[in-house]
């Protein structure tokens, strides 16, 4: 098998043979050669319906012709100058128009966006600690893990949040509006609105991490549905159209503290790089005209089919999770309390059936505008049947 052979070479070069841990699965991950629309193709000659979508960015599917064209045109005219380009303004104006973000900074990854928004909150608020939720993921940096300066509370628990914030020692509370890295966990009615009220009451900045949810459920960051205004917002994945680009932004009086208008250093050779910017800009122009109702419809179809398994399923437009348990899943401990260990059996069975699931139980299944109803029917019926079989197995 070519993937097996490539993995042996890769293992001598990269820790665990990969450049990001969730890409690994034993005995070796499939190496992907190309993608088109909702399909990806590995080096071993197999075709898959892609339900991973690169962990979220590829909402238009792979190799969208207009996005490819914009990347090619940009490439022919140079890809990096260390000086501003007009396209940065065009992309930023689209973001500003469709959100509450007044001022923003482009960076290269979601991790950078959350790291710098948290640094900014500490600089602005002059308090040392950060609060996040259990099962929330914001990238691999010091603020993502509990420590002397980082505490955690349960998602959907307002009382716990208020109890913590009373001490007035937290600069920021960072939260995904829909959890996407513990499977999909939806906010309960009123949760995000209460989070806004309580954080304001105790002088803690509210950072909404929209790296997964931004422009996925409609042409806006998810929090816009709740009519609230966070202090800072992070965007990633979709806004780069499959190239590395992420954004942090929010209220102008906070953002102005970044150099050169303020004193907080934050810089990057590749920040706002022209190639990522044109891919993001073209993707956003296409999405602006898309009917998200179609994405909602196929996601609901997937949901109904998965529900037939009798197991827990959570859904938001373009994203869903099947949990190997029964009942509702509303917080991280519900996810942990499931037959998680059986997930890789499901993953491999689906791989054999030509369906590429996220290779980890905690990751979200994503759908794109390229998936057909037929893709959804086939993929989700296969998942549903196998999950039910695994669940019943002792
Ligand atoms: C909600 C959230 N925030 C931040 C990140 C980090 O983004 P990146 O992987 O681009 O660094 C991720 C990545 O999956 C994410 O899901």
Textual characterization of the structure:
Helices cover 35% and strands 16% of the residues. With 394 residues, it is α/β, with parallel strands linked by helices. It folds into two domains: 2-63 and 291-392, Alpha-Beta Complex (Aspartate Aminotransferase, domain 1), CATH 3.90.1150.10; 65-288, Type I PLP-dependent aspartate aminotransferase-like (Major domain) (Aspartate Aminotransferase, domain 2, 3-Layer(aba) Sandwich). The strands form three sheets. Strands 4-10-9-8-7-5-6 form a seven-stranded mixed sheet, with helices on both faces. Strands 1-2-3-13 form a four-stranded mixed sheet. It has a three-stranded antiparallel sheet with strand order 11-12-14, covered by helices on one side. Helix 9 (292-307) packs parallel to helix 12 (373-392). The longest helix is centred in the last third of the chain and has 20 residues, at 373-392. The model has no long low-confidence stretch (mean pLDDT 97). It binds pyridoxal-5'-phosphate. Pyridoxal-5'-phosphate is lined by residues 55, 109-111, 114, 137-139, 176, 180-181, 209, 211-212, 236, 246.
């Amino acid at each position: 098998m070519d993937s097996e052979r490539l993995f042996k070479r890769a293992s001598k070069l990269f820790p665990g043979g990969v450049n990001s841990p969730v890409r690994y699965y034993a005995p070796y991950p499939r190496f992907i050669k190309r993608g088109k629309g909702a399909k990806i193709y590995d080096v071993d000659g197999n075709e898959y319906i892609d339900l991973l979508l690169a962990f979220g960015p590829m909402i238009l599917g792979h190799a969208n012709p207009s996005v490819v064209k914009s990347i090619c045109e940009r490439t022919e005219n140079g890809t990096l100058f260390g000086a501003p380009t007009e396209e940065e303004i065009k992309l930023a104006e689209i973001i500003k128009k469709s959100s509450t973000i007044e001022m923003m900074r482009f960076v290269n990854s979601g991790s950078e966006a959350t790291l710098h928004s948290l640094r900014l909150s500490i600089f602005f608020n002059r308090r040392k600690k950060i609060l996040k939720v259990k099962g929330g993921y914001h990238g691999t940096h010091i603020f993502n893990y509990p420590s002397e300066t980082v505490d955690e509370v349960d998602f959907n628990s307002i009382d716990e949040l208020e109890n913590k914030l009373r001490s007035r020692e937290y600069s920021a509370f960072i939260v995904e509006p829909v959890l996407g890295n513990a499977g999909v966990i939806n906010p309960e009615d009123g949760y995000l609105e209460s989070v806004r009220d309580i954080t304001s009451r105790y002088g803690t900045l509210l950072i909404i991490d929209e790296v997964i949810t931004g422009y996925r459920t409609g042409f806006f960051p998810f929090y816009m549905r709740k009519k609230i205004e966070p202090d800072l917002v992070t965007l990633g994945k979709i806004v780069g159209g499959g190239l590395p680009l992420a954004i942090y932004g929010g209220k102008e009086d906070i953002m102005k503290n970044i150099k050169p208008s303020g004193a907080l250093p934050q810089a990057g050779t590749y920040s706002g790089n022209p190639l990522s910017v044109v891919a993001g800009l073209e993707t956003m122009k296409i999405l602006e005209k898309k009917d998200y109702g179609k994405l909602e419809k196929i996601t609901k179809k997937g949901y109904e089919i998965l529900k037939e398994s009798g197991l827990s399923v959570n859904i938001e437009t373009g994203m869903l999770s099947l949990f190997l348990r029964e009942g509702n899943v509303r917080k991280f401990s519900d996810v942990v309390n499931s037959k998680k260990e059986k997930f890789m059996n499901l993953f491999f069975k689906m791989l054999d059936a030509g369906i590429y699931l996220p290779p980890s139980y905690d990751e979200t299944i994503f759908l794109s505008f390229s998936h057909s109803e037929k893709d959804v029917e086939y993929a989700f019926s296969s998942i549903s049947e196998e999950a039910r079989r695994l669940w019943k197995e002792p």
